[in-house]
Amino acid sequence: MITRPNARIFKVRGDFGLQPYIYRDYGYLESYVEKPDRLVPHARKLKDATDRNKKEHTVTSQRGLFVTGTDTDVGKTYVSSLILRELIDAGHSVGVSKPACSGAVMDGIKPRWPDLDQLTEAAGLSSDSLICQQKFTAPLAPPVAARHEGLQSDLSKMQENFLAWDSTVDIIVVEGVGGLLCPLTDQDSVADFAAWVNFPLLIVARLGLGTINHTLLTIESAKLRNLMVAGVILNDAEGLADTPAGKTNFSELANRTELPILGIIGHSSQSVNLRDQKTPARIDWSGLAGLRGNGATNSD
């Protein structure tokens, strides 16, 4: 794990062997969850879910994160790009994959996908060809957009895109489409693809009114499908941090779920803050990406 001078690490351990995965540049890291011991039963649930998913999974050793959201336009691409840049700055080789992308803007007569542009730039790639093959013009769920264009949303191509990175990089960041139950094909949802990838989920939620319900529903949906959830990031996509809802989202969610609420990303910010929103903090994304069958790895 990469640490900074004079940083003191917050550790939570249980029979699962959960390693520290968030640290503060300065001073003592106070618990970002009301009761740190709640992380231990959470870790056991992650292990149980991983064991069940492994039986049907084809990729067993690759580390990574699956970034999903509580809705569309909550900032999945923005957060994914921040993660990619931080991992690269920390010296990791990274890959990035998005199963499908809908909603193009026209650059002259040529369509362009802003989400893919952001991911391409953040990953330091020359094109989006390694990120996504299934691209549709209409701003609709992939299978609906595909039918609108006389095409078909192809799961095998989404899997091929992901597998092209497998075992070639340290960590793969996968960004989902819309919310967890958004359709990917006529038969499959984002949740189905996430189960196949078998990476811990990072749930991005929009700071503001409605977020408590949307976030808890997403967590419940993940649990029902035995999907691992590494934690929740609150993103102030609309500049609502000073509203009553924005001020209380973190504490309310922390009181209503045992999952870690990892931090808040301020409006147009390039960093993640802890609960007090005053002291800068950094999340060890590599540690989160290692939350697999035997617990969080500590290979940095």
What does this structure look like?
This protein is of the alpha/beta class and 300 residues long. It has one domain: 3-Layer(aba) Sandwich (Rossmann fold), CATH 3.40.50.300. It has 9 helices and 13 strands. A 9-stranded mixed beta sheet has the order 1-13-12-11-10-9-2-8-3, sandwiched between helices. The protein is globular and about 45 Å long. The N and C termini lie close together (4 Å).
Helix and strand topology:
Layout: E1 22-24, H1 39-54, E2 63-69, H2 76-89, E3 94-97, E4 100-102, E5 105-107, E6 110-112, H3 114-123, E7 134-136, H4 142-148, H5 155-163, E8 171-179, H6 190-197, E9 201-206, H7 211-224, E10 229-235, H8 244-256, E11 261-265, E12 272-273, E13 280-283, H9 285-289
The Rg value, from CA coordinates, equals 18 Å
Give the low-confidence spans: 1-57, 292-300
CATH topology: Rossmann fold
Provide the CATH architecture: 3-Layer(aba) Sandwich
> What gross morphology would you assign?
globular
Main sheet record: 9 strands, mixed
Helix tally? 9
Strand content: 15-25%
Oligomer: single chain
**Strands across the major sheet, in which order?**
1-13-12-11-10-9-2-8-3
Structural class: alpha/beta
Task: Kindly state the percentage of residues in helix.
Answer: 25-40%
Order of helices and strands: EHEHEEEEHEHHEHEHEHEEEH
Topology, number of strands: 13
Overall pLDDT = 79
CATH fourth-tier homologous superfamily: P-loop containing nucleotide triphosphate hydrolases
How many domains? The number is 1
The CATH C-level class name? Alpha Beta
Give the CA-CA distance, first to last residue: 4 Å
